[in-house]
Design goal:
The protein has ten helices and seven strands. With 242 residues, it is of the alpha/beta class. A seven-stranded parallel sheet has the order 1-2-3-4-5-6-7. Helix 9 packs across helix 10 (222-236).
Length: 242
């Protein structure tokens, strides 16, 4: 998989954690290959599977791991509407608050998931200072109407495979409205594979398809779009700088 990614022109891969069990293993990746960097966090979709009593100790451990270096961002964390039955939104917000605090403390960008919870996220952003290092709304799903508000709050918007899907409307319109300096792309592998791989397992090599779709939406050459999003990523995630 990595050989296919490098052959496709991918220059770096950021692998975000979804839960504490993955943290130690992920931290080994940059030691093996500096093109592989990691983020550490707790995904809101995982919270229903984790005892709430463990939130505090897990976040204390996260603080200690971030202090030791090795991670270039905090996350993936955030808010997930469908998970609220197993992890009430109040708990999700407390955990997100702590991730944001740690991102500010360690001067790292924050990687935020938001699915069917954008009104709650907007309220959170109104009362929360985003990390100075940056905040990324990963696999952006908020539609075009929220772009200006999120950008005004200091967010970067990252787009994935859906911008390449034939019926895509909201992601495409949101992409058009995103300032170039706040634009990122991703695969969200193994999910959301871009066309023509839709329905199959996604992988980092398919990032080229997302770049091509993004360039087509913007009416720009693929090479220019690729250079733009690469520079934006390097500016956010310092370990990727040459």
């Amino acid at each position: 998989m990595l050989e296919r990614a490098w052959a496709a022109g991918v220059e770096g891969i950021l692998v975000p954690a979804i839960g504490p069990d993955a943290w130690d293993g992920l931290l080994q990746l940059p030691r093996q290959d500096r093109r592989l960097q990691v983020a550490l966090g707790i995904h809101p979709q995982l919270l229903p599977e984790l005892p709430e009593a463990d939130d505090g100790p897990a976040l204390e451990r996260l603080d200690a791991l971030l202090s030791s270096g090795g991670a270039v961002a905090v996350g993936e964390c955030g808010l997930d509407g469908p998970s609220a039955q197993g992890a009430p939104m109040e708990r999700q917000l407390r955990v997100l608050d702590e991730h944001a605090r740690l991102a500010r403390k360690h001067r790292l960008p924050l990687l935020v998931h938001c699915q069917r919870a954008h009104p709650v996220l907007e309220e959170w952003l109104e009362r929360t200072s985003p990390p100075e290092a940056g905040l990324v709304l990963h696999s952006y799903s908020g539609g075009p109407g929220r772009v200006a508000e999120y950008v005004s709050r200091g967010c970067h918007l990252s787009f994935a495979g859906p911008v390449s899907w034939t019926e895509a409307r909201k992601p495409v319109e949101a992409l058009k409205l995103t300032p170039r300096e706040r634009l990122l792309v991703e695969t969200d592998a193994p999910d959301q594979a871009p066309a023509p791989h839709r329905g199959g397992r996604n992988e980092p090599a398919f990032l080229l398809r997302v770049v091509e779709a993004t360039a087509a939406v913007l009416g720009e050459p693929r090479e220019a779009t690729g250079a733009l999003v690469a520079e934006n990523a390097r500016r956010l995630f310092r370990a990727f700088k040459p």
